[in-house]
Design brief:
Helix 2 (about 35-65) packs across helix 5. By secondary structure, the protein is mainly α. It is elongated and about 55 Å long. The chain has helices at about 5-35, 35-65, 85-110, 115-145, 150-170. It has a single domain (about 5-170), classed as Ferritin (Up-down Bundle), CATH 1.20.1260. The two termini are about 30 Å apart. The longest helix is centred in the first third of the chain and has 31 residues, at about 5-35. Bound molecules: MU-OXO-diiron (FEO). MU-OXO-diiron binds near residues 17, 20, 50, 94 and 97. MU-OXO-diiron (FEO) binds next to helix 1, helix 2 and helix 3.
Length: about 170
């Protein structure tokens, strides 16, 4: 049975994942309007993933006797200074999510709620992967440069990554 403290904390995480999903959506739209089609597709897929993270938590809360709450989501920023700025914001956001997941894990561990701790392991691994991915993108941007031809290559790269990920998903399904 889920404690009230954990239930509240997990519902807060539901809201954070929902907010992340909408932030990615806003970023995807900005990229699309700037002509970065590949990056937009990558960010749309990222937005879908965050919704999946939210739903996984949502179902878990109800499964273990809590009450999952559909969250209110604040309107995200819709303007960005540059291509690089978007990814800096992404990494910042993901670091906050990681800290929140680690905090949830601390609560579950303190309460000896092994079921929830086990459930949260998936998120710990996911965050490590996401942070690594965005560090790599920012690293590549440093090499390629935050201008025309560099961004063109980056956009092509992200289009390819998105196509591969979606092909991988359909094979797995
Ligand atoms: Fe679900 Fe990227 O945090």
């Amino acid at each position: 049975m889920l404690s009230k403290t954990l239930e509240d904390a997990l519902n807060k995480q539901v809201a954070m994942e929902a907010s992340a999903s909408y932030v990615y959506l806003a970023m995807a739209s900005w990229m699309e309007n700037e002509g970065f089609e590949g990056t937009a597709q990558f960010l749309y897929a990222q937005s879908d993933e965050e919704r999946m993270h939210m739903m996984k938590l949502f179902h878990y809360i109800n499964e273990v006797g809590g009450y999952a709450l559909s969250p209110a989501v604040a309107a995200p920023d819709i303007k960005f200074d540059s291509y690089k700025h978007v990814f800096e914001r992404v990494l910042e956001q993901e670091k906050k999510v990681t800290a929140a997941i680690h905090n949830l894990m601390d609560i579950a561990t303190k309460e000896a709620d092994h079921t929830t701790a086990n459930f949260l392991q998936w998120y710990v691994a996911e965050q490590r992967e996401e942070e690594a991915q965005f560090n790599t993108i920012l690293g590549k941007l440093k090499i390629l440069g935050n201008d025309g031809s560099g961004l063109y290559l980056m956009d092509r790269d992200l289009a390819q990554i998105t196509a591969q990920a979606s092909a991988g998903k359909s094979v797995a399904e």
